[in-house]
Amino acid sequence: MTSAILKTETQQFINANLNTDVAKLAFQKNPFPDIDFAVILNQITAKSKAENKLPTWFNTKNIIYPSKISVEQTSSEKTALYKSSIISGESLIDLTGGFGVDDYFFATKIKSVAHCEINPELSAIVKHNFEQLNVKNIECYAGDSFETLKTLNRKWDWIYIDPSRRNDAKGKVFMLKDCLPNVPENLDFYFENTNAILIKTAPLLDLSAGLSELKNVKAIHIVALENEVKELLWELHKDYSGEITLKTVNINKGTIDVFEFLMNQESVVPNYSLPKKYLYEPNSAVMKSGGFDEVSVNYNISKLHKHSHLYTADEIIAFPGRIFEITAYFPYHKTEMKNQMSGKQFNITTRNFPETVENIRKKWKIKDGGNLYSFFSTDENNNKIVLICAKIK
Questions:
Q1: Whether pLDDT at 28 is above 70
Q2: Number of structural domains, the chain?
Q3: Are residues 258 and 275 in the same domain?
Q4: Cα distance between residue 64 and residue 47, in whole Å
Q5: C-alpha angle 138/143/148, rounded to 5°?
């Protein structure tokens, strides 16, 4: 099957149809009788998804792709590159290797990487792809990673784990114990084989829930890609019991916004103020972190309200999020709304406000889009207010 996919004419067909509607293509006659057409169609779909997410793979000849779901679930190159900045040392074992994107980048920093994958077919695909990518310092092991870890019986500088939710865990509150492998249950065994563990979880996992199941957490990295939180990274070190660093990372095109602070610092006291000249809206990674008071103190900017999570200042500063110039603000009253916004076009955001964006649009006949931004929120005196803004960043 693999050799059939890699035939020159098959690869040419795949590349020629990357922008073709696969649903329509499926009704055509299979031009390659020696291979299931569904396999070829999957290669087209998966490679199309890889173009922006995995450009190194996309631009390398004779790459074989797994199911499109595997490509959707794998790390992007940008988030994988960030993960590689966390680790160091001589050796790393990945217990949940998947498509191998993280390991490719780990291998640029680590002398010896082990890729474990329970699915033998996927393991073989990844091994083939590493050869095409000219990666020589990754060993692929098919089978249960728990057994592989026992069999190899050596000390690793890092263990990396990306546990997946079991099928019977759908609908439940996200807990690590409901994933495979069961990290909380196996943690002591893992620490017999390493002093440092990096765990990737979906952003759905609540930070306090993760901390209740894990121990020796030194840092939590909240990683967003263009303001969409993609993953949480839990950095565990054997016998560590100190303060936990929370690091928010938003990877933009060409820039990275980073904000970090120590969790549960009681001495953090924010400032409050009515709107000043500029409005600051934290990015999604900062919002996930819950470090709203820390933002005020660290950047010396004032909060509009305890629960609004919007900030204001009279000057422009470097900030992990969007920055707006406030051109007007007024109380949320019928007369003001009719005069200032009714029938006009605005982008609308609500923060700590009792009405939804949809209701506001309908109620005041406000069109979507345009260059003007409006924030519906609550000020420090508990008054409902509207801010009209022009975007700076």
A1: yes
A2: 3
A3: no
A4: 9
A5: 65
Single out the residue in 14, 43, 71 at which a domain terminates.
Answer: 71
User: Quick one: pLDDT band at residue 291, thresholds 50, 70, 90?
Assistant: very high
CATH number, domain at 44? 1.10.10
Which DSSP category does 226 fall into? T
- Asked whether residue 241 falls in the same domain as residue 183, the answer is yes
Supply the DSSP symbol for 244: P
Question: Which two three-digit tokens encode residue 324?
Answer: 């707006």
pLDDT band, residue 170 (cuts 50/70/90):
low
Please tell me the distance from the alpha carbon of residue 2 to that of residue 124, in angstroms, as a whole number. 10
What is the distance between the alpha carbons of residues 258 and 274, in angstroms, rounded to a whole number?
27
Question: If you write DSSP's letter for every residue of 105-125 in order, what string do you get?
Answer: HHTTT-SEEEEEES-HHHHHH
Burial of 195: CB neighbours in 10 Å, binned 0-12, 13-18, 19+: middle
The structure tokens listed for 390 are 């022009």
In degrees and rounded to multiples of 5, residue 343 shows phi and psi of 80, 0
Domain hosting 351: range is 271-391
Closest CA to 374 of 310, 308, 329: 329
Q: Which residues contact 36 (CB under 8 A, 6 or more apart)?
A: none
Quote the percentage of the chain above a pLDDT of 70: 98
- Among 95, 74, 75, which residue's Cα sits nearest to residue 84? 75
pLDDT score, position 33? 84
pLDDT at residue 307, as a whole number: 94
For the stretch 259-265, contacts whose Cβ atoms lie closer than 8 Å and that sit 24 or more positions apart, written own/partner, are 259/285, 259/286, 259/289, 259/291, 259/295, 259/298, 259/320, 261/289, 261/291, 261/294, 261/298, 263/220, 265/294
* Shared-domain flag, residues 91 and 201: yes
Residue 3 binned pLDDT confidence (cut-offs 50, 70, 90)? confident
Residue 169 confidence (pLDDT): 59
Q: What percent of the chain has pLDDT over 90?
A: 87
Question: What are the residues whose beta carbons fall under 8 Å from the beta carbon of 23, sequence distance 6 or more?
Answer: none
Question: What is the CA angle 342-347-351, rounded to 5?
Answer: 100
Residue 176 sits in the same domain as residue 38? no
